[in-house]
Amino acid sequence: MAGAKLEPRAIALRVVKEFKDGMLVNLGSGMPTLCGMFLPTDREVLLHSENGLIGYGTTIENPDEADLTLVNAGIQPVRKRPGMAIVDHAESFSIIRGGHIDISVLGAHVVSEFGDLANNTTPGKLVGSLGGGQDLAFCAKKVIVMMTHVDKNGGPKLVKKCAFRLTAPRCVKLVITDIAVVEIDEHGLTLLEVLPGWTPAEVQELTEPKLRISPNLREMELV
Amino acid sequence: MINKVVATFDEAVADMKDGATLLLGGFGGPADNAAYLTAAVARLGVKNLTVVGNIGGRGGDSLEQVRQRMAQLLHWPTDAYDVGLLIVRGQVAKGIMAFPAAVGHARSPFEIAVEAGKTQIELVGQGTIAERVRAARAGIAAFYTPTGVGTFVAEGKEVREFDGRAYLLERALKGDFSLIRAHKADRYGNLVYRNSARTFNATMAGASTITVAEVDEVVELGQLDPEMIVTPGVYVQRVVVRPKTPQPWDQPM
């Protein structure tokens, strides 16, 4: 029987391990912003925010300490950090579109086996939002999706074909969920890591497309 | 003598007409929107507006809901009037927006208006809105962007390949009024901003026939370091100073 699943903050810890020294990283709204709580201290990673912050600091949890003019794109108050730079929105997206973002971490409603991303309209809603996610999905050097492995009804979020309109086709390269790490390339999905307490077969049951098992399959480690 | 400072918010938007296109500089944070200019447009009562910006609004009753929901993160100002105020008053015919839907299952004033058939939506990503506006300011008619190729935003748009990659043709987007918020101005209209409140404000500046800046303070000419000025006054036609304490939106000012 399958084990427990990771809490969102624990998934964030695993995502942050992908950030290498010197990288410029953008955290999408929703779950990915949690990564901002766990900036690595042993390497310099710069966070980019759509609203024009480059190299901002950790999120502020006490509203009395918040500066109303210093928020990230998820409208979370953040700290200044030495070396931080501020630009306007057009420049901020020149940075994105120009391919200067090393990693974009995005949330998703569903991701297809070839990396198609759908995250622009909450299921059941008439109006959607693209935010800055479409520019990031098309133009970041690497797109990582951070999400739960299944939706609220237990249905798979890694699917053969996206039923929702796409934000961007064939853009996602890595998916980090509450039970597994899955790589995506032109051949489909490869299971790289499974959470302790889970077997590859149990992860496969919650994944619609066929998972290839990496020859280097490992347990998911958070630190 | 050049003096772009006007006395009241009402005066700053008095010549706005029905059917105007407004470029709104707010991102959706608590202190990055031209709140009192937005309130003046609500008082003026012009209709059939096209609004260009990021979010679908938190005006009307939803402002108080947002204040309560965000209370554990930050103290949301009581006077953070935004495009939602115009939407709930039926002044908006169309939105060209990147983030019109509220997060999750909440509904923004704009979503409610679209669902009721009162308002049209053109959904465009932030980068494309920003560059369309920047192009208008810079005299560029159109540009090719990779963002959106092969998705719903590409419908009806030219796709062209350059060096093996496909790009969409996007048109410049000029406004009648840019309503922006800045920190300090001088009488030439030179502007500096604060932190992430620069956002779309500095982007929308100069992309409309009339750009109006709502500022915390007007300083003497020469007090803004030329190296630090973000928006040169040539992009700004009017400057108006915010009140020191929150005021109700429906009071002439």
What does this structure look like?
The complex is a heterodimer of chains A (223) and B (253). With 223 residues, chain A is an alpha/beta fold. Chain A has four helices and 13 strands. In chain A, a hairpin with a 3-residue loop joins strand 10 and strand 11. The longest helix of chain A has 9 residues. Chain A is globular, with a radius of gyration of 17 Å. The model of chain A has no long low-confidence stretch (mean pLDDT 95). With 253 residues, chain B is α/β, with parallel strands linked by helices. Chain B has seven helices and eleven strands. Chain B has a single domain, classed as Glutaconate Coenzyme A-transferase (3-Layer(aba) Sandwich). At the A-B interface, helix 2 and helix 3 of A face helix 5, helix 6 and helix 7 of B.
Largest sheet of chain A: 10 strands, mixed
Helix count of chain A? 4
> What share of the residues of chain A lie within helices?
10-25%
Structure class of chain A = alpha/beta
Cα-to-Cα separation, first versus last residue of chain A: 25 Å
Assigned CATH class of chain A:
Alpha Beta
CATH topology of chain A: Glutaconate Coenzyme A-transferase
* Spatial strand arrangement across the major sheet of chain A: 4-3-2-1-5-8-10-11-12-13
Fraction of helical residues of chain B: 10-25%
Order of helices and strands of chain A: HEEEEHEEEHEEEEEHE
Series of secondary-structure elements of chain B, N-terminal to C-terminal:
HEHEHHEHEHEEEEEHEE
Structural class of chain B: alpha/beta
* Shape field of chain A: globular
What's the Cα radius of gyration of chain B?
Answer: 18 Å
CATH superfamily of chain A: Glutaconate Coenzyme A-transferase
Query: Structurally, how many domains make up the residues of chain A?
Result: 1
Strand segment tally of chain A: 13
Number of helices of chain B: 7
